[in-house]
Amino acid sequence: MSALRKILVVENGPAVNEVCTRVLPAKPYVAFRAEPAGETVERVATAPESRVKMIALFAVAPFVALCYAVLLPFVGIGLLVTMAIKALAAKPIAKAALLFVRNVALLVAAPFVGLLYVVALLFFGAAAFQQSALAWASQHRDHHRYVDTDNDPYNIKKGFFWAHMGWLFFGKYRFYYANAGDLVDSKLVLHQARHYPLWSLTAGVIVPMILGVWAGHALGAFILCVCFRTVFVHHGSWCINSVCHTFGKKTYDARSSARDHWLVALITFGEGYHNFHHRFPNDYRNGIKWYHWDPSKWILFLFEKLGLVWKVKRASESRILEAKLKAAEIESMTGGKP
């Protein structure tokens, strides 16, 4: 869901206060089950196969399913037409006709593939149990608009605990979604918002449990793939609001409390490059260097090339360099103090 975050948070709107949490991709874990003593010999022989199956189910399967849903129509059409073109390479007219057919087919397939892509993001994002995409985007836009003020839902100036999780338990905000009108126009986003318990329970509990039962590790699936995963994802995303506003480097904006923290970036799929994100909130990237761990950036870049996403925003190199030099100058003058 991190990829969806970068598509949603592109425009700021009117002043409203919202509450929701950040949606992050669920992190897979492997579960194992203790067996009765009488089955020890049999299980020793099959344990490797069982473990591989669990790893495939909870680590590889969602990614492969998403890739198949998005890329298979393009790859299949491309391969078939390419083979036909090679077979008829000596006939220019036939070759031109096949190229035309391929382009038309890809044009027709693109909307359906894009729809599957959005459904997949909304579905797997709901498994994080961090509010709907609509609620999350509205609240996140308010955070950027009113950062470090009383209107900031998780204002770091109220303390580390408040920014980490206190705002969820003690904060009071009202939902208007006035700053998310572009998302309200999406029927899929609205459906997820109105039926979020159904989406989240299906993606976050029912599907992992079904796969766990099929793999013979129902209890392990519940403990690791439901309970532990949810706790890990929650605290990982909350670290963006607390750790990344307390520790790290102010590489691009010395006046902001947001900071770049490589460890948080590692566990949140790139979200830890928070200073850059606050300085250039419309940029689809968090980690701008090619070696920065930011899978969402790579996915969006690929889908832009495939025509599945468009109007992807990037800050110019000159603006980035200017911000970096200015931040360095302020840091040297203040000695790193706020």
Task: Tell me about this structure.
The chain has a domain at 2-24 and 56-218. 63% of the residues lie in helices and 0% in strands. The protein is built from 13 helices and no strands. α2 packs across α8, α3 (92-126) packs across α8 (196-215) and α8 packs across α9 (218-242). The model is unreliable at 1-47 (pLDDT under 50).
Structural class: mainly alpha
Mean pLDDT comes to: 76
Overall morphology? globular
Estimated helix fraction: 55-70%
Give the biggest sheet: none
Instruction: Find the count of extended strands (DSSP E, 2+ residues).
Output: 0
Beta percentage is under 5%
Distance between the termini: 33 Å
SSE order, one letter for each helix or strand: HHHHHHHHHHHHH
- By DSSP (H or I, 4+ residues per run), the number of helices equals 13
What is the CA-based Rg, rounded?
A: 23 Å
Low-confidence stretches: 1-47
